[in-house]
Amino acid sequence: MKTLPWIILVLVALAAICASPFFGAVAMNPLAPLSDTARSILFDIRFPRTVTAFAAGGLLALCGLVFQALFRNDLADPFTLGTASGASCGAAVTILFGASAFVPLGAMIGSLLSMAIVFGLAGIRRDPSPLSLLLAGIATSFLFSSMMMFMQNFSSLHDSFRIVRWLMGGIETCGWSGLPVMIAIGLAATLTVLALSPVLDQLLLGDDIARSHGVKVSRMRLVLSLAITLTVGGVVATCGPIGFVGLMVPHACRAVFGHSHRKLIPSAMIAGGALLVICDIVARTVAAPAEIPTGVITSLLGGPFFLLLLARKYDR
User: Fold this and answer.
1) Which residues, other chains included, contact 216 with Cβ-Cβ below 8 Å and sequence gap of 6+?
2) pTM to 2 decimal places
3) Tens digit of each residue's pLDDT (9 = 90 or more) over 65-81
4) Which of 153, 213, 253, 256 is most buried, judged by most C-beta within 10 A?
């Protein structure tokens, strides 16, 4: 295993994590003595925000990596498969009815409902193909997006603005209260995916080859989809829907670290975390003292990246 790419990846991630708390509307000098106000900003806002960004970015990259392997499609990620839209819709319902304390629960219920619809539309009892599941996911994404637009049309101006602003995605948490649920679900999902990484390698080769090696394809696809769907719900509940991280990072990591998921899982999670921390720094500083939603920054990066990916693919 080549160590230089790992060293560079870890150093970039550590540099982003160490630098992040000192950037924002109020810039800080890490070498200067901290006042009480500066200490409060660092420990109550900036540090938990940095941890949240790194954890969310890593989990989104993991979700995209697993979905692309499960469905053997470069376009597969939490958004194209409808899980992010379902989680967003569930969270939007709780916001609309003034039950903000239940946003995590609403997001998880929405993500699970979206995955149930996907497998139901694809006909899970008939052993659906990856393509049918992907198409069902796209249809489900449009369904939940339409439901959110319907709710906004009948909501008050205040609630509609809150929903739209939340749907842009952002790392705006204050304190540590939003982290435990996301980290607990993400840790369980990460351990599950790591344990089943050989299965992902087999599924990437095709269902028939995987079955010939004793993999129960439908069951494994369902187990992995359930773990990743809950993870998407946890991330969306904490940060809102942040796009393109799960699409960009797995492709970049495959180009550097190969196709073995034992290497891809940790590398994608580190790279995804570093990317979202850097995007959050940009979101806080480029228009300071105002903030741009982090999801806007990732989308601005994701569009050109995907066009470049398509250009390289068809150029071969």
Assistant:
1) none
2) 0.89
3) 999 998 887 778 887 77
4) 253
